[in-house]
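Prompt: May I have another protein with tokenized structure?
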Amino acid sequence: MKRIALMSLVASSVMMAGGWKIPETSLNGVALSAANIAHNKSADAAYYNPANMIFMEDKNEIEFDLIYIGLDAIHYEGKHTSGATVFNGGLDAQQENFIIPTIHYVSEKTGNARIGLSIVSPGGLSKRWQKEPAKASAEEFTLKIVEINPSVALEINDKLAFAFGFRILHTSGIVKSDGFIGAINANASRDMTGTGIDYGYNIALSYKPTSDLDIALTYRSKVNLNVTGNAKLSTNRAGGATYDGGTSLTIPLPATFSAAIAYTLPSKTTFEFVYEQTMWSAYKDLDFDYDSSFSGTPGGKATLTAVFDNPKAKNWHDTNAFRLGITQELKNMTLMAGAVYDRTPAPESTLGFELPDSNSFAVSLGGRYQINEKMEVGLSALYSMREKRKVKNDHFDGEFSNANVLIISTGISYKF
């Protein structure tokens, strides 16, 4: 269950970036395709690069954002094999819609230090299939992650700053499946829920050699999400077997390293390039643990073990993303645009209905309007176009398509 809950989260990755990571956690993050690390003068610096808090205006600043994420209904066309049972045709997942609130805060300076706080959703997933054979393995995979990330920035000198933060992550997940499994020639079902709290850290370094050049390095640690809860399992094979008890799973929210450089022209036009590496190779398998043995006939218990209690290999690999952001400052307005290319970490050999991931290219735009010297409002949007994914492995011989994502963010910030 532990892994299942986490898997649910993975699917929600909201399918934003490869895997289940969500890089866009603010109005600016959406507008710039998360290319807002080196050149960041807003409250969301507390999350993207807390070292930059040192170089911001010496005031308290708080920002509230609402982020809408819409996932298209993924389509699968082709063959699916389970034992002697073969499906050949088309299937559509359910369309998914989410509203995610985020908060970012940066304090005024105290000596050579500033404090930041962000509350965001750094990852997650949700995928629902209502027809077999997809329903038999992924009727619902939903995972939600909320991160509380306090940080402290220290001024080294007038050109260099360092920051460190503490990550507190709460996860909750739902995993359901129900249907005929050809490999066991029987029906099997599961209904799992679970939660967990885990911890990590982040560090950042900002260097401003000149007034128009910004360089930054950031690192967010891997966090093993340990989810525990309850699982209800059953099968009608060999007289039936059931399980109703505790379950647990561990799955990684991977470490991320970013290197960014930004240059501002005399026209107040800033170009930022970000190289990002995500260490998805930490995700080796999906393995659920149960508190006690299954009950029922020997044949039924063997069936539950075969379907739900054997580790499933994932063998993901590290990925690189390339982000470009453009910012134009005007008198009372800031205009932004961005683009990102992100590769999937999921190999063809282990791809399944729960997370049919693929490479993606996204474009974004947005703006902020300064109402007065204390308050700004803004609106931004990002559209991620995911490539079609042909897959041929032990169970699939077909193509996943229509996995595009729309993100819209609106926000308000206040200085005091």
